[in-house]
Structure formats: C-alpha cells, structure tokens
C-alpha cells in the first residue's frame, strides 16, 4: 500500500546542484540490505559527512520538501534512493527535471516529483536561502504555492497521479486486467 | 503510416492501453540479480502471490559477489545474506539461477546475450539501469525499480508511458584506436547526461552498422548515461550470426521463422523520430572523462576545461565542483595525468573482444610501477574463453590481476574498491563521486586506452602505440 499524496504543506530545503545521481542519494554499501526500510539515516551519506552540507544546516531540520537542480536521480535504477528520501521524511521533490527510472520509482512510493521550469526553481532557491520557508504542494490542484505570492502549476502524468492520489496498489490494479494478459499469452505462446 | 523500430516493438507488446499514452506491456524476458530483488520477492511472499512466468525469468548473482577465490565462503556476511536470499527465492519461486558455483555466472547483461536469451524484438527488463545493453539486438530493454520488479514477477507485465524516440545517426569510419566506447562517450559529451531523457535512442548510420555485436552492446549499454530509457539498434546479419547456435536461441524450423521476423524489425525510411542528433565518427578521437558525470568528457588530446569559460552558471558550478573532487587543475593536458589503478571490467566493456583488444596492447609489456591493475571478465564463460586463448597469461605476465566475473569495481559493492584519492582508468560506465569507492577518482575510457594507461602509469593516447 502506497501512502496517498493529495496535498502537503512542509518546510523546504534547497540543494542547488545539477545531476544529483542515485549513488550520492544512497551509496552502494547500503544496497546490501534485503529490507525495504531503514535507509533514511543513510541518505546522502557521503555528503552528510560535511557539516556545511545543505541538509546538515539547523534551518533544514524537519524539511519535507526538497528543491534541487536538473536531472535529479540520474544513474542507477536503485529504488533504495527513493526509499531513503521518503524514509528521511521527504514527501515531495521539486526540480527542473528528473531521471526517468527515478521518476517511476517515486510514484510507486508515495514521493511526489514536481517538475517546474528552472526559472521557478531559481525563485524557490532564493526564497529558501533566508531560512525557514514553507511550500504547499497540491497534487489534486497540480499547484505549488507559498504565502508570499509564489504560485506555479505543474503537470503530472495521469496514471501516476491517480496512483498517488489514491495510494493504489499497482499489482492489484494490473491483476484486474487478467483477461487481457491471458489473451495476450494465448496469442503469443 | 511509417513506424520506427521502437514503435514496432512497443506495439507488439501492448496488452492493454490504460490511459493517455500509458500502456500495460508484456515482458518477454525478466533478468534478476541479488541486489534489487529481495524486497520484491518479500512483497510477493507477503501478498501470497506467485511468479507468473518463472520460465521467462533468469537470475544470477553479480553486483556484490567477490571476484577472488570462489572456493571460500563470501567473507562479507551482509553480502552473503543477500546472495543466499536470491538462492532461497529462486528455489521457492521456481526461477533458474546461475549462482556463484555455476560456469554460467556473470554480469546479468553479459550472460543474457551470451546464452542467446536476449533476442531481437523482445521486451526485456531488469532491476538495473544498464539493461539498455540488450537493445543492441533490437530489443526494447529497460532498467526498472524494485517495485516494478515485483510487479513483473507477479504479472509478467509492466506499466509504461510511451517514451519519445530519438535517432542518433552516427556516420563515417572510425580511425584506428577509436572504439565503440569512444563513440558513445562522445555522443554523451555532445548531448549531455539528460540529452535523451524521456526518449528511447535508436542508433543508426554506417558507423553503427560497422560495429560488431559486442561493440553495439557497449554503445547501447551507456544509453542511460545520456538519460535515455533505452537504446536500440535494428537487427541485421551481424545480429543473426551472433545468435546462431547459442544455447537459448531458436533452433531448426523455429530459427528460420525467427530470422524472418527479425528481418522486419527496422525503422521505415522517413519514419518519424521526435528528436534527431548526428555524430561524425571520423572526427571522434579516444575519449577520457575528466569530471564526475559521463558527460564531462574530452578527447585525450584535449585539456581539463576551465570552469570559468563554460557558458552557464550551473555548468560552471558543476565543473568547479567536479574538478575539486577529481583533484585536477583547469588547463591540465589529459594525456599524462598519472593514475594509481586500472579497472578492466563491467557490463560496458568486459566481453571477449574487449579482453582481446586490451591483451594486444599489454602483450610483452608490464604494468607501470605502483599501478594496481585488474581484469574482471564479464562472465565466467568469457573468463573460460579468454583462458582458452591464453589471454589470462598475457594479463598476468603483464602484472594484471586476473579475477572472477562480477560487477566488481564498476560500483564497488564488493571488496574491489578505490581508496580515497586513488585515480583509476576504468572501462566501466560511471565516474560519479564515490562510485568506485569513497573519494576515488574515476576516468572512463575504452579497454585499449585503459590497457595503455596501465602500462604507462598515466593517461596516454593509444593512437601513438
């Protein structure tokens, strides 16, 4: 069961870097686990050794929305990256673009990827620089807004959106198509 | 209506249209390995589900396995647990497993083609981003996450929004010393690490047609490094010749009808691609990465770029950060950068042709003092073949370590890792920060470039050899 996502208000942390790959999000040594939980503390493990790293700053504590640069989540298909982000406490990630496999993994774990134009993301970077900054991310209305007048709409592919809004079990949903699957198998033995 | 190769393979697999451009697609071959599957099997078990088509599922251990002595148990207890979990899961769910003791064990993307299990027109998935490798046969092959692995195990289907289609047309003849790896690195350098995001790349052009099957795999393998969902090359006589007689390839009557089917797998003249890019192979020299993404790449005759001269603020910041991590000063000639380690391996470049080409460079020579160099064959069969040809002796006599098959130092999940600050000439696919070991510095290049670097102890232009 996926945690449904409809609307979330939360604190923002900015990570203004491009091409953040999944090796950075969760390094290899944590992929040996056979469990689906326990990845939160290892998020950005190597970078977090630096006290100046964005997530280590006092103002970033308790953040649930990550605003970051283009091509976020590139590289390895490891879903552990999404598990780590979600288990750390993130509910939404805002970036100019995401890597394809990472995007697919987000939708299956209740983590909302929001794609906004780079110019909007730059505004969010600036707004977050001052310390405590909150955003409302609304998947139903397809809108990101703050209480200072920032408001931007985004698009979400309809299948993924519905899956997140309703917290659907994708396997259960696909198994409803059993007659079609069986028919395909008869035609393609 | 004209259609592309990708359109054809996509349409042949649609089980049900679900929503605007999203379809339920049937999976012909599901490859499984130890790292991204345990949670998927646990999910099946928890829900009381079975594997729908175990006979269309193949498993092996590759990511975290040791490449040293296989007669002793795995020293790392956590890795051992994960390897054991796949063994248990394969037995319980009735899936064929090439385990550590099997002569068929190897990197999942090397053994699929080697068995002839990878075939033109198939839809192939694996919980690994380098699944794109199999597209070299004209298959639509893509990496997926663990939730999707569970979904495929349970339903033999995958839900996908249809990606767009990009034609990468590579023409002209390669100069001596220029490898398939150089073509794909040059292309990534050209279009960027997200240049093909949301797309399936079809590689076309006479430079692609001239490639051997193994070279085509190298090209398709790194499609993901350009952000692509998959890479594909239309099958031709090279493909057919490669597959003929392989253990899992069709035989007899079935072989004849398979060839007929495969010959139809091509893009129509004038078929509509969403995006097109071109590369002139005759202008490509041996490539070496200087930074921390595969797109940070240059010709070996070039220099480390000056971040200040890059066009955008975000490129300047990224390059400055990369150079700091890599310990390189702007303007440094790439040729001559001293190295500590050499890694000849990975699903990109550890097949028999790669090992032959590298062996030709090192034969009768010796690895430079203070350089540690290793060869990790892509599969145990590649290893056996190389040993039959005497390549192991060539490498050993030159001072290389000759190891067992696995992903090894491509991602450093086993004991094969770089130390902090160590600089490595690698034939793998990612030069991300810490990828080969925390603080390790990776330069990606072709097997012959890495072999030459091992001998000289520094990055060199293999064309001068």
Describe this entry's structure for a reader.
The complex is a heterodimer of chains A (189) and B (465). With 189 residues, chain A is α/β, with parallel strands linked by helices. Chain A has one domain: Aconitase, domain 4 (Alpha-Beta Barrel). Chain A is built from seven helices and seven strands, in the order E-H-E-H-E-H-E-H-E-E-E-H-H-H. Chain A has a seven-stranded mixed beta sheet. In chain A, helix 3 (100-107) links the parallel strand 3 and strand 4. The longest helix of chain A is centred in the middle third of the chain and has 12 residues, at 118-129. Chain A starts with 6 loop residues before the first strand and ends with a helix. The model of chain A has no long low-confidence stretch (mean pLDDT 96). Chain B is an alpha/beta fold and 465 residues long. Chain B has three domains: 5-161, Aconitase, domain 3 (2-Layer Sandwich), CATH 3.30.499; 164-235 and 261-283, Aconitase, Domain 2 (3-Layer(aba) Sandwich), CATH 3.40.1060.10; 287-464, Aconitase, domain 3, CATH 3.30.499.10. Chain B is built from 15 helices and 19 strands. Chain B has helices at 5-11, 38-47, 77-93, 108-115, 146-155, 180-191, 206-209, 213-221, 237-243, 253-263, 313-326, 352-362, 380-388, 391-397, 447-456, and strands at residues 14-19, 22-26, 29-33, 57-60, 96-98, 123-126, 140-143, 157-161, 164-171, 199-204, 230-232, 275-280, 287-289, 297-299, 341-344, 372-375, 401-402, 423-426, 441-444. In chain B, the strands form five sheets. Chain B has a five-stranded parallel beta sheet. Chain B has a five-stranded parallel beta sheet with strand order 17-16-15-18-19. In chain B, helix 2 (38-47) crosses helix 5 (146-155). Classes of the chains: A alpha/beta (189), B alpha/beta (465). The interface between A and B is large, with 49 and 64 residues.
